[in-house]
Amino acid sequence: MLTRRIIPCLDVRDGRVVKGVRFAGLRDAGDPRQLAARYEQDGADELVLLDVSATPAGRATALATVRAVRSAIAIPLTVGGGVRELGDAERLLAAGADRVGINTAGVERPPLIEELATRTGKQCVVVAIDAARREQDESWEVVTRSGACRTGLDAIEWAIQAERLGAGEILLTSWDRDGTGAGYDLDLIGAMADRVRIPIIASGGAAGAPDMVEAFDAGADAVLAASIFHDSVMGVGRVKQQLAANGVEVRR
User: Fold this and answer.
1) Which of 130, 185, 211, 221 is catalytic?
2) pLDDT for the residue numbered 251
3) Is 51 marked active-site?
4) What kind and span of H or E run contains 130?
5) Could you tell me the pTM of the whole model?
6) Model confidence over 166-205: pLDDT tens digits?
7) Does the annotation count 178 as an active-site position?
8) Domain ranges in the chain?
9) Which CATH superfamily does the domain covering 5-245 fall into?
């Protein structure tokens, strides 16, 4: 049985970790380097660092922050935010990222995913999909630019296309659940897991280990969380203990 990954997320703005609800109302949550080191020590399998102000501000991810986080950890690091061209991705990899996340630019110019996969390898390309539920037909729509833009693009169909273009993994965030502690959107996870073969990282809504168990049961290969770790509701080690007690294979 493959081990399931637990991934803390560092949403960074102006060199500080922030957290909000549905990508809004951001509050300070600490220093990214210090938090990264703490999470690795507590047993995190990987880290995701997202520069949440890069795309809205029309700039690239702050490389100094990436270098600072990399200097503090040895576990895999995925970095996203403001990746609009191949050069942006190459600079992030050179600064210490193991994988690069692409969101808005991939939706606006899908061939960029293929370019990144060809140049860096599929294993380095994580396509981040922020999905909002459409109440009228119980489907999900892709939102971009930190949730400010409703694209009209079906999230499941976009995941299928992203896989075909060369994505190595999907970071799937429920816009509706982000920061709410209401649990992952299990219907969304299940619907996507039924249609793509690449791994899915589930994000948005975790309040504790029981939510993560449900996400894995729904088809996620890894789970991402932020608030419960930043606010010390529960540490990574404690989460893994509870997951193991519920039959989830984790790296201890």
Assistant:
1) 130
2) 92
3) no
4) strand 125-134
5) 0.93
6) 999 999 999 999 888 899 999 999 999 999 999 999 999 9
7) no
8) 5-245
9) Aldolase class I (3.20.20.70)
